[in-house]
Amino acid sequence: MLSKDLLYALQTRSKRLIRELESFTTNIKSVSAQDGWALVIETMTLVRELTPTHEKYSHVLKAVNRTWMAFAEQSDTAADQLYLYVTDWLVQTDWRHEGEAQAAYQLLYAFHANHLRCPGTNAHLLHGLRQQSPRLLSLIRNLVPYATQTLFKVPVQDHTGVGGDAIGMLLDMYFYHAGLVEGDDLRADAGHMLPLLVRANPQIGNNLTLCLLSGHPQRANLICELIELYFDLSVEERMSGMFHSTMWELLDNDGASFVYEELDKITARLAVSCARWTSEQLDTFTRDAFFFRLSNDEDRHLLLEKSAKVRRLACMIIDSGHSGTHIDALRTLYNALGDARPVAPQLAAAPQFEDLNFKLLVIQKLMYDQETLLPRFDVEEFVRKYTVREIMIKEEGYDVIPEVQQYFEALVIPPHLLAQVEELSFDASDEIYSQVFPYWDGEGDTFDVASVRDIGLLPNLKRMSYMPDGFVERHATTLGQRGIDVD
């Protein structure tokens, strides 16, 4: 049975409400399913009645949402029960009735974002979404006629009060409540509707909405369809929604953009569809693709040099027969590439250090701690300027990046700097390791020092601290004989 204090706080909207909800959520495992559901029903009523102008509105909603998530985490049955209730209420709403629409809008706003959690943390929510997805997708279609019609008298935050607000929140549920990978099919089902929704209201969607397409088998065609739709609109109509996110992702080659992965297919389709574009439309596309995200000609030149896919897109634009400020500027940049292609640098025949991991300890000390070995290496800047191939940090950073490793192998440290090293220490969080292996978790022996033969390069080394136990066991005696303390 719910406590009297909690019931009183719910019924009176007292100042203790948030505290009582948080206490209930903290102790959810000791609460019966019956009492948990009783609280869900009470809080569902609360969010439908609590006006968005209430001074503690956002705080109350977060506390309520955490309670719902805690309840749903208990089992698939609990999550299904929660999703069924919300879906039933939304489906049965008469969206033309001002009072009903406002109440349903407030319920949806409270439920749509899985507050303070990463997507995929609640497997039971995914189950609940999967059970109700057909009805939710049908609801989205039924809301399309109201996409630009004002339905909600008191909208929240940046919402405008039109039906598109509700559609956007329903789409958000497919991002927040689906798993990181497991819900790809559900996201694809929702993502398939994006062209239909953009036709109804170009303001629908954001960068998270665009992610719904990531697992869709026809994602390249859908992205092209969106681009084609946006470029048939006025500048004002495409000021928000997914337009800028789509164009931003088009040339984002850091390894995390599914849009960039599909660039060749997108280029092939746009080569056909842009034949009906005016010079102004293609020039605007060129601006948004090459001159919006990339801030200067150096960045544009480097990307053209390293990426065959980007060069093919540039050729499509240049060969279109159109002319314009940005098309002509791109043509100049492309022609400046010439025929020469970069050659990978060769490593010196005899590296300065035998053990790279020992050398990395030295580089950490001189480059990042003492800042005497310059220039300071930054992996993102290195990747930006490296043109032999595309290095995609967000894709390749879960292992040692070979070219970065080669850079440090070839780096020559002047003897006068080596003479300044009196102490070396190992810390898995040191910056040098995030340069070589950007997403290293600090576990494993990837950077363990195997040899101490390079000690002779450091004439004034007196101490090696915080070294792994295996290193201490193997080398403490040898180093001790050289007057070097090890721990």
TrEMBL record:
Matches recorded under Pfam families: DUF6892 (PF21832)
Domain DUF6892, residue spans: 352-486
Xref: InterPro entries: DUF6892
Protein's name according to its UniProt entry: DUF6892 domain-containing protein
